[in-house]
Design goal:
five-stranded antiparallel beta sheet, single chain, 5 strands, alpha+beta, 4 helices
């Protein structure tokens, strides 16, 4: 039985060993994730800077994506759909690599839609950053449930139920 920590460590290992530009697989071939930087000849073509990262928040996996784009890409195409497709390709890559390492399935179900932000670096060139959250479940791993008695809300409610707020102590001799 795997733990949540082992799932997080495995995904972090995948990103560290296979997620950078120029990474090679076990056979010495370049790793294909589905990003723009993998297209064309690296010696002859202009390199496109893009990449991804992952963050963990409880049972959520947040995939971040960043890329360099042109102004025409913002107005001429469906930017959110293109970025969402790139994030989905990253998710498919993570699932495939996780299955290859652990021989168990990793399920990533989207929680919300992709959040995209485009900023300019010149009048023509822009960069886009995006993130999307997924609920992470793995085969053979129990979901982590928070202990309701340790949450700050529970502790505060418990404090208020002790009473005494708005009443005067017995040794208070002041006039009312």
């Amino acid at each position: 039985m795997a733990t949540v920590l082992e799932v997080v460590q495995t995904i972090s290992q995948i990103v560290a060993h296979r997620g950078y530009d120029g990474a090679k697989d076990d056979k010495g071939e370049p790793v294909k994730i589905g990003l723009k930087r993998e297209e064309g000849n690296p010696l002859l073509d202009k390199r496109i800077m893009d990449g991804f990262g992952v963050k963990f928040h409880g049972d959520q996996l947040i995939v971040t994506y960043h890329s360099e784009i042109l102004l025409s890409d913002i107005y001429g195409t469906k930017l959110e759909e293109d970025v969402d497709q790139k994030i989905q390709e990253v998710v498919n890559f993570l699932k495939k690599e996780y299955k290859g390492i652990t021989k168990k399935a990793l399920t990533l179900t989207p929680i919300d839609e992709v959040k995209v932000r485009a900023e300019n670096s010149s009048k023509v060139r822009y960069w886009v950053t995006a993130h999307k959250a997924f609920k992470m479940t793995a085969e053979g791993v129990d979901s982590v449930k928070p202990d309701l008695e340790k949450t700050p809300e529970f502790r505060f409610k418990e404090f208020l139920e002790q009473g005494g707020l708005g009443t005067r102590p017995k040794n208070d001799t002041r006039k009312e």
